[in-house]
Write a structure and sequence with these properties.
alpha/beta, Rossmann fold
């Protein structure tokens, strides 16, 4: 992979990550993921006292269609293996996109009589900003902080999560950051010129597999 592609990928990676400080919250939400390090990270937050429970949301998606169980069930197993008690875990295994993650998670908590004032939402690093933008519009009245495994682009890409796959995913998420606010799905996000230039460079370089 060329140095120019890697430089653009790192720029886009840094844009997607928010680096928000965390404080104890009413709960921890984990939206669907093909990266089980997200579940391990959520378990670490639970053990650090940052939330009294974890809700895992997610059916199967494009990257997890061959998993034997849903993303939520699989991630919950990782959390239990990391020492999170089963009674402190909620599972929502029907959501197939971020909007459904939000809507179905909120409904499940309401069914349990839980109303959130503050929450930590855990995602893959390159999905922090898009998730934040969606939550601002689709879950008003709750103050969310985003968190993800503390990995830079180079350390994140390993195993099945190749650089090519991650770059394509990042360009797709960036496109949604641009396209979703006019549709009412997400809040407007400031886009620095460097991030826009990196996105256009990567699209022109052929990383278009997850564009709509």
């Amino acid at each position: 992979m060329s140095p120019d592609v890697l430089a653009a990928a790192r720029t886009l990676w840094d844009y997607h990550r928010l680096g928000q400080p965390l404080a104890p919250a009413d709960g921890i939400l984990v939206f669907g993921s093909n990266d089980l390090r997200v579940a391990s990270h959520a378990a670490g937050l639970f053990h650090a006292g940052l939330g009294p429970w974890i809700l895992f949301s997610g059916a199967r998606g494009r990257m997890t269609s061959d998993w034997p169980e849903s993303e939520a069930v699989t991630m919950a197993r990782v959390a239990r293996e990391a020492g999170v008690p089963g009674e402190k875990i909620f599972i929502e295994d029907q959501a197939t996109n971020t909007g459904e993650n939000i809507r179905f998670s909120r409904r499940l908590l309401e069914e349990h009589g839980i109303t959130l004032s503050t929450a930590i939402a855990v995602q893959k690093p390159y999905m922090e900003r898009r998730t934040h933008a969606a939550l601002e519009v689709q879950w008003p009245g709750t103050r969310f902080r985003l968190s993800s495994p503390d990995l830079d682009f180079d350390r994140y890409c390993s195993g099945d999560l190749t650089a090519e796959l991650v770059i394509s995913a990042m360009t797709g998420d960036f496109q949604r950051i641009l396209d979703y606010p006019p549709l009412g799905f997400a809040s407007e996000q400031e886009v620095p010129p460097a991030a826009m230039a990196a996105y256009r460079f990567l699209v022109d370089a052929g990383f278009t597999g997850q564009l709509t």
